[in-house]
Amino acid sequence: VYRVEAVLPDSADGSVDAMSDSWSLAVESAADALKAGRIVAAVGEPGSGRTTALAQAQRLAHPRRRFLTVRAPVPRDVDAWLALWTPELRHREEGIVVSNVDELPDPAAQQLHDLLINAHATMSGSYAFSAESFEDIPESLAVLVDTVVHVPPLRDRSADIHLLAASFARRARGRDIAFTPNAMRLLTEHEWPGNVAELHDVVKDAATRTDVIDVQHLPPAMLAHSAHLPRIQAFEREEMVRVLMRPGATIGNATTELGMSRATIYRKLAQYGIQLPRS
Fold first, then answer.
1. Which residues pair with 68 in a beta bridge?
2. Residue 233: what are its φ and ψ, rounded to 5°?
């Protein structure tokens, strides 16, 4: 399965001015390079927003240009994938973002190299790739890259979380959705190993179940930082989070349901790294 789509002016979440300095620097650096006719590679962790950064850069560099984002396919679909969208390279004033080029098999990368060489020499389109690292880009495409831009992971730009969460919730429900201070604190303090993609999934799930997102609407694991627990301990941790995150829950009434003393509950909260919301 692969996707080829025309990017609309409002497709990229957040404006350059509203986002963090590190994000804006990446977008503006890519935009300057695209405006100068260079081929750009955006690199960073999966889910960090590499394709979105390039989409914003394309829109910033060429606000009136039509452009496509193209995600690399599984190997068996390469021929159909190339046949579907590469005719667009014949159009002047076309922008192309090819995401996850590090997933392309070498023969497909070589074919794309040849097509881009011809298009770049004869047309005035703008082209960009995304990958996890520059070293992972197939050599035949890496030699075409003029500018490399690093997209920082979400954990390094916590200032973006509030804006992105609000945008994802609005997209899920078609209107603004509120977040309690405790829920937003948890979102901001979370490490987000899955980056923006993980934040999107968490917020979308919560927004479809409530009009005000609170702690109990977020995944229980977000309240506990202990990883790789044995199955029984992981179950105990999740049960503690479930009981203690209910609206109006107290340590006192949790002792009965959990069958633990206050001292045991406090000890296990520390053991499992569970952070109770501030009252």
1. 6, 96
2. -70, -35
Strand partners, 62: none
Alpha carbon 39 to its chain centroid, in Å, reads 22
Interval 175-217: pLDDT, tens:
999 999 888 988 988 889 899 999 999 999 999 999 999 888 8
Q: Backbone dihedral region of 14: left (phi > 0), alpha (psi from -120 to 50 degrees) or beta?
A: left
pLDDT tens for 235-275 read: 787 788 878 877 778 888 888 888 888 888 888 888 777 77
| Contacts of residue 69, Cβ cutoff 8 Å, sequence gap at least 6 | 3, 4, 5, 7, 51, 54, 55, 97, 99
In the block, residue with structure tokens 């831009």: 149
Rounded to two decimals, what is the model's pTM? 0.74
Residues across the chain: 279
Q: How many CA atoms lie within 13 A of 220 on its CB side?
A: 14
**Encoded amino acid at 39, one letter:** I
Q: Could you tell me the two tokens for 146? A: 């003029």
